[in-house]
Specification:
alpha+beta, 6-stranded antiparallel beta sheet, 15 strands, 22% helix
Length: 375
């Protein structure tokens, strides 16, 4: 079954009922144990420094439900979150200079593992050194959780260093997680902000409030935010889901870019199809001061370019930006077609139901080519 058939059948865009969208386009899946990842532009982590910083158990890459809600118990304190982050910055800066792939992947989880694995593969293929980065003043968002999985989010400006010169600051969200006591903390998610963060609710001690993935007081239950965004990316501003998803770089902008690629391929007599699909990684929700939520989640963008009817024809090449990440045994051309898939991390602001006329706004996103092949 083609992506387009899947989108037109099983992947219906959305059904609207009053202020709630029930999206059928994406099936949310549970996590895969052992999958790991790190941010593609933040270097790598060092286990020795992390262990020295605090008694770190590790973060899993599994997409088990994130426990929400604020309690008096603080299994993870603000000070411990600061230690985890500080250890990461120190060790990643040192390890990036060594280009140590195994060390970097060991301390990465979820979408970030996909980013970092692709980065190291591409750098190794092209002989390019690992980039160096400078970190600005972080802002911590630590939920008051009584049990595992533990997690927190950091907002920080990051600048690339080239030949001693710093590039412009890029405001970035980083999500750290420790799934069970027996595993290390890992950096599991990052997304570059293209809009300001909303004000996040805090208690008197400075801890933020978590939100249930099924919270019905929001315009969309957080567990449906990614699926509803996908309906707009797949079908464009005419999709029913556009009634509750705001236009922007990561929504209608992605649709425009993918549709343009499809039009360009059609002039070559080829079919191009795309599908934004939920990934089996952890999702994080933080309550905003207006009763809404900041939702951080991962998605896959799956694309195919093929001869009409999937018949054999002139070989089609894998896109150039995917070639450096492919193993030497991978098919870089296909007589029928090629698949080229991306991994993304997003952050969205989900307003409360009481906000009349408001829409979900996707305010951050980072993506990287992570898989491709000819067939």
């Amino acid at each position: 079954m083609s992506l387009r058939e899947w989108k037109g059948g099983t992947a219906q865009a959305a059904l609207l009922a009053e202020n709630t969208v029930f999206c059928l386009s994406v099936t949310l899946r549970r996590g895969r144990s052992g999958a790991r990842g790190t941010v593609r532009y933040l270097g790598v982590l060092g286990s020795a420094a992390l262990a020295a910083a605090i008694a770190l158990g590790g973060c899993s890459s599994s997409a088990a439900p994130v426990k929400a809600g604020t309690t008096a118990a603080h299994t993870l304190t603000l000070a411990q979150a600061q230690q985890v982050y500080d250890a990461y910055v120190a060790t990643s800066t040192a390890a990036a200079k060594q280009g140590d792939e195994s060390e970097g992947l060991e301390h990465a989880g979820d979408a970030q593992w996909a980013f970092l694995h692709s980065q190291y593969t591409a750098l190794s293929t092209t002989g390019t050194p690992v980039a160096q980065y400078s970190y600005g003043t972080p802002v911590f968002y630590v939920p008051a959780l009584a049990d595992f999985p533990l997690w927190f989010v950091v907002a920080v400006p990051i600048r690339t260093e080239t030949d001693g010169h710093l590039g412009p600051a890029v405001n970035t969200l980083l999500a750290f997680q420790r799934y069970v006591p027996s595993r290390l903390w890992t950096l599991d998610g990052s997304a570059v902000l293209d809009r300001p963060l909303p004000a996040i609710a805090r208690d008197a001690d400075g801890y933020v409030s978590g939100v249930s993935a099924a919270d019905s007081s929001l315009l969309l239950p957080p567990e449906l935010v990614g699926a509803t965004q996908a309906a707009v990316v797949d079908e464009g501003p005419a999709a029913p889901a556009a009634a509750v998803i705001a236009s922007g770089l990561q929504t209608t902008g992605m649709y425009t870019a993918q549709n343009a690629q499809g039009n360009a391929d059609s002039t070559q007599g080829l079919n191009y199809e795309w599908l934004l699909q939920s990934a089996s990684f952890a999702q994080y929700q933080l309550q905003t001061t207006d009763g809404g939520a900041l939702v951080i989640y991962s998605m896959y963008l799956n694309t195919t370019t093929e001869h009409p009817g999937n018949v054999s024809g002139t070989p089609i090449a894998v896109p150039a930006n995917f070639v450096p990440i492919l193993p030497t045994t991978a098919k870089k051309v296909g007589p029928h077609g090629v698949s080229a898939n991306w991994t993304y991390e997003f952050a969205a602001v989900d307003p409360p139901q009481s906000a009349h006329g408001a829409k979900v706004e996707v305010i951050a996103g980072s993506g990287a080519p992570t898989y491709g092949h000819g067939y």
